[in-house]
Amino acid sequence: MNLSAPFIECRDLAFAYTDRPILQNVNFTVQTGRFAAIMGGSGSGKTTLLRLITGQLRPTSGQVLVQGRDLAAFSTAELTAHRRRMGVLFQHGALFTDLSVYDNIAFPMRELTKLPEEVIRDLVLLKLHAVGLRGTEQLMPAELSGGMARRVALARTIALDPELMLFDEPFTGLDPISLGVIADLIHRINKALRSTSLMVTHDIEQSLKIVDQVVFLAHGEVVFSGTPDEMRQTDSEWVRQFVGGLPNGPVAFRYPAATTLKDDLLQAA
Ligand SMILES: Nc1ncnc2c1ncn2[C@@H]1O[C@H](COP(=O)(O)OP(=O)(O)OP(=O)(O)O)[C@@H](O)[C@H]1O
Fold it and tell me: Locate the ABC transporter domain: which residues (predicted)?
């Protein structure tokens, strides 16, 4: 593994849903083995960006390069191989409710590989151990707390030792202790597997502790890209409003109404 080479590179990336532009001029690189957070306000295009990187969406213009190769030029077989190398953990980390913890983690191994059951068994136990939940194999998802369920989902995400891990708001809905546990696990797994990781998150406090770089989106463009330290010191108004949780800033508190309140009130009188 060449740790100084980019694993993911977005070059002049733009995307529109039919004629509605969502992303434009997006340029950034994530080096192999690094951990990047994608941040930005609601609707700024973070999840859309993740979907472009998984290959679920195709850019309107520009490129997503994976290990130097344009994703758009991947054959169907290459795209399948790309997805197989990826571990994805979505917001609610949904487990299959009718499968036990064991079968949930074994699922991608059974679906995507021809590994014999005894090897799968050892791998499931190792993954459960990695998230601190060995002994829960026979429990059903309904018997787990929210934090435990997220850890099982994380174990399933790493089932096949992904080279690329994508997390979409992995901390949503967790209490502070579970949140700290998940953040620590994600960090340790990124380092242990040396997998390149991207995480969409609103949680500044936890994520700045564990990521190597932050890509900050506003109105569909990258308005800041740098290390957590650079982010804390930046004078970007967008970032400062987000970090400070300020109600007013580049993202205005008030909707830009076409008339003034005074006019409206006078008209009604
Ligand atoms: N399938 C779709 N068709 C049309 N518009 C969409 C579709 N999916 C998302 N959008 C729009 O694209 C914009 C960006 O959405 P996206 O989910 O990428 O934002 P986000 O930054 O992840 O937001 P949040 O933090 O609220 O999850 C939003 O305005 C959303 O309404």
Answer: 8-244
- Please give the DSSP secondary-structure letter assigned to residue 56: S
User: What confidence tens digit (pLDDT) does each residue in 132-172 have?
Assistant: 999 999 999 999 998 899 999 999 999 899 999 999 998 88
Strands (E), the chain: 6-17, 20-31, 35-40, 61-66, 69-70, 86-89, 164-168, 196-200, 213-218, 221-226
Task: Note the Cα 148 to chain centre separation in Å.
Answer: 19
**Separation CA 212–CA 34 (nearest Å):** 6
pLDDT attached to residue 69? 92
pLDDT tens column, 215-241: 999 989 999 999 999 998 888 888 888
- With a 6 Å cutoff on the Cβ, whether 21 touches ligand 1 is no
Looking only at the bridges linking them, the beta strands covering 213-218 and 35-40 are parallel
pLDDT score, position 49: 95
Residue 51 CA, closest ligand 1 atom number? 18
In single-letter form, the type of residue at position 128 comes to L
Nearest-angstrom CA–CA distance, 134 and 123 = 12
Burial bucket for residue 101 (CB in 10 Å: 0-12, 13-18, 19+): buried
* Ligand 1 binding pocket includes 91 (Cβ within 6 Å): no
